[in-house]
Fold:
Amino acid sequence: MIEIANDATCVEGVNLADIAARYGTPCYVYSRAALTAAFGAYRAALAGRPARICYAVKANSNLAILNIFAKLGAGFDIVSGGELARVIAAGGDPGKVVFSGVGKSREEMRQALAAGIYCFNVESANELEHLNATAGEIGKRAPIALRVNPDVDPKTHPYISTGLKSAKFGVPFETAVELYRRARDLPYLEIRGIACHIGSQLLDPQPAADAAAKVIELVDRLGAEGIQFAHIDLGGGMGIRYRDEAALPTADYLAPMLKCIEDRTEMLLVEPGRSLVGNAGLLLTRVEILKHGEEKNFAVVDAAMNDLARPALYDAYHDIQKVGAGKTALGSKTYEIVGPICESGDFLGHDRELALAEGDLLAILSAGAYGMAMSSNYNTRPRVAEVMVDGTTTHLIRRRETVAELFAGEAVLP
Ligand SMILES: *Cc1c(COP(=O)(O)O)cnc(C)c1O
Structure:
């Protein structure tokens, strides 16, 4: 967890008001100690067995964050050629990269083959053929795993559930054997593993354990045909606490899944995203205008749905605290916390009890995952700055965009 004092004053040893004064608002603030602790919890839980933690880059792809994980020994789970370029630029080892995604282009396949990634997580029969052909053109063998779809219900939001039969991800369980036979016969493929990923923000550890058990059954069936694996990739998806969710400690969440594979010799891969970065970041924003309506009180802040899309997109809850004052301060009112964007869906929180004045700073918590990574320039709003706290020092890890940069690539007709 990011260290936020009760009155939301500091991240590690740095005052949030000082960060706002120095870097402006809105800005994302991350804690290096929290990132390191989250990674350490995975490492401790997996100690004693061959395993690799492949951070899911899409959760937060800032180079400084990738570099911190690379230095801790992480591999990476990528979903685009752009993410591969980021991993390499951040000092990550392409030899520890797995490439997921249902629509890899030939260009991305070539780029990943040239970089020498560890494994392609193949998601369809046709992708196998495309990858074999592309690898053949450059005379390389492509290392592959099939992403199988174990058809377990992860009991999460439908938009972030990926392991059901109806989902676009992975290949159906029933066809996996046939596809592995096909892969074995294709000259430019090399079978390396098997993969699954059933969804995101999972709180109950049982679906992941059920998926692991089904995958193991399949591994044994394939083993009987002489198809063997160097690794088993059980994906990411562990949930975090945003509000009052009973999110388990990492070791407890992983325990039932690990039990299913305790006597296996294959290397275990996991692909955590949210659980490594979500609670290591917050979005710092300032109250611009208070608007007391007949039915509702609005606090219009300088951050908006383009900066943090999760509330608008998933109706997601983020705790919002006033910087430098307890929640129960005198004169509190119930506020809608909204941004300045011209959309009714532009809210960051509903019905929050806060004592606010214009100019106050707010910390929107648990914003480290799928926050900056999903931000956009809607309403021609420059993307915000990102700041990393490390003890008592701060580092600007991405400067605020300028408006001129936003239309620098555009042209008017002659
Ligand atoms: C998004 C994704 C992850 C990471 O999911 P989290 O819920 O953030 O842990 C891992 N693997 C794949 C294939 C993904 O698409």
Remarks:
- The longest strand covers residues 281-292.
